[in-house]
Amino acid sequence: MSINEEQLAFDQAHIWHPYSSMINPPPMTPVESASGVRIKLSDGRELIDGMASWWSTIHGYNHPRLNAAAHGQIDKMSHVMFGGITHEPAIELARKLVEMTPEGLDRVFLADSGSVSAEVSMKMAIQYWHARGKPGKHRMLSLRNGYHGDTFGAMSVCDPVTGMHELFSGVLAQQFFIPRPETRFGQPLLDGDLDALEQMLSEHADEIAALILEPIVQGAGGMYFYSPEWLKGARALCDRYEVLMIADEIATGFGRTGKLFACEHAGISPDIICLGKALTGGYMTLAATLTTAHIGETISNGGAGCFMHGPTFMGNPLACAVANESLTLLQEQDWQAEVSRIEGQLKQQLAPAAALNNVAEVRALGAIGVVQLREPVTLAEIQPLFVDAGVWVRPFGKLVYVMPPYIMSNEDLATLCSAIIDVLGQLEN
């Protein structure tokens, strides 16, 4: 059933959408269904989805195998508490994650959103040092331009100026920050690029529980691609100064950067990893935080005798069943070839955007394409132009970016790229 005008008016008057105002709410695009890489609007038009529902629908919408997994599980149980109870979907998902993730990450905490996964990772780090008899190590170190979620702990490690949470700065936990790496992806490590990290660790290691970062690709903080050599050096410095490393792979995990996990570009394993978004193929919310046996056992031997976290929907069977099928689907397919194909086409077909006056830079890595502008876009102005062009692209600030589902055809990707160039060209005229 299509959305009618009365329903749209109710939405506008009563429903908050992400980062939206209730005084001057942005216009909404009513969606009726989605299949493959296309979103069908209530008026019958179809849009090629360039956003993969914020990185998550890597297999596309309405996938028959993911649908079957959801149907099969919901007839058994959609949910059961995880306290004192276990079930096959959670066990098999944990098994897959231990096998897939970087070496040594074999203790699994299943949560219900990426932001909670980040919270859990920070609590793990703090509880670990408390159990080690070093309760003073309870602050986090983060990178400028980083983004880790919208809950309070996660907000505290987002960039305090560009991280969308500046007005909360007076009430958030005060963390340490260093500049993001200067060395770009594919460049040799610049002299002195690790100096800020080393200085911070040398001065404050007795206070810092963990360095939390998005490996290789900073997402909402600027779609910035940095050097694997920097990440490798950061891992060594964390070891030297006895600070844990948390890799927030919520956005980068499951192939998006061309490696199964972005840490693999640097050949490193973090102490804790956060996963989410593509975990269920975009079907529903689920997240996981993995750590080492050493950290898990140290926490468990501490004063609390357990890890102090347990969400109501932890280990949700329905989400776990779909996640299992999504990961199986990923492993059965040649996802590396698909992501490589997408990367090559994004680099080639977004390149002409560099000739536009308002474009500062064009870049691509894996299934991520970015056109960085000199001036911010006005969303209410640019969004309808993309819809009229038959694509769904949701820019923010100075960034017009895409992260297509891995199944997107060359033809649809070409349409997506040309639409970006055409719309940006219209804005200049």
From TrEMBL:
Protein residues bound to substrate: W54, Y147, K277, G310, R394
Residues recorded as binding pyridoxal 5'-phosphate, renumbered to this chain, are: G114, S115, D248, P311, T312
Instruction: Enumerate the residues marked as the site Participates in the substrate recognition with KAPA and in a stacking interaction with the adenine ring of SAM.
Output: Y19
Chain positions with N6-(pyridoxal phosphate)lysine modification: K277
User: Which top-level enzyme class is recorded in the Swiss-Prot or TrEMBL entry?
Assistant: transferase
Domain of life, per UniProt, equals Bacteria
Show which residues constitute the signal peptide.
none
Example of a GO MF term: adenosylmethionine-8-amino-7-oxononanoate transaminase activity
Needed co-factor(s): pyridoxal 5'-phosphate
A single GO cellular-component term on record: cytoplasm
Q: What's its catalytic activity?
A: (8S)-8-amino-7-oxononanoate + S-adenosyl-L-methionine = S-adenosyl-4-methylsulfanyl-2-oxobutanoate + (7R,8S)-7,8-diammoniononanoate
User: Which Enzyme Commission number(s) are on file for it?
Assistant: 2.6.1.62
What metabolic or biological pathway is this protein involved in? Answer: Cofactor biosynthesis; biotin biosynthesis; 7,8-diaminononanoate from 8-amino-7-oxononanoate (SAM route): step 1/1
Compartments (UniProt record) = Cytoplasm
Q: What does the protein in this record do?
A: Catalyzes the transfer of the alpha-amino group from S-adenosyl-L-methionine (SAM) to 7-keto-8-aminopelargonic acid (KAPA) to form 7,8-diaminopelargonic acid (DAPA). It is the only aminotransferase known to utilize SAM as an amino donor.
Q: Can you state the subunit structure given in the record?
A: Homodimer.
Q: Which family does it belong to?
A: Belongs to the class-III pyridoxal-phosphate-dependent aminotransferase family. BioA subfamily.
Query: What name does the UniProt record give this protein?
Result: Adenosylmethionine-8-amino-7-oxononanoate aminotransferase
Whose protein is this, by species? Marinobacterium mangrovicola
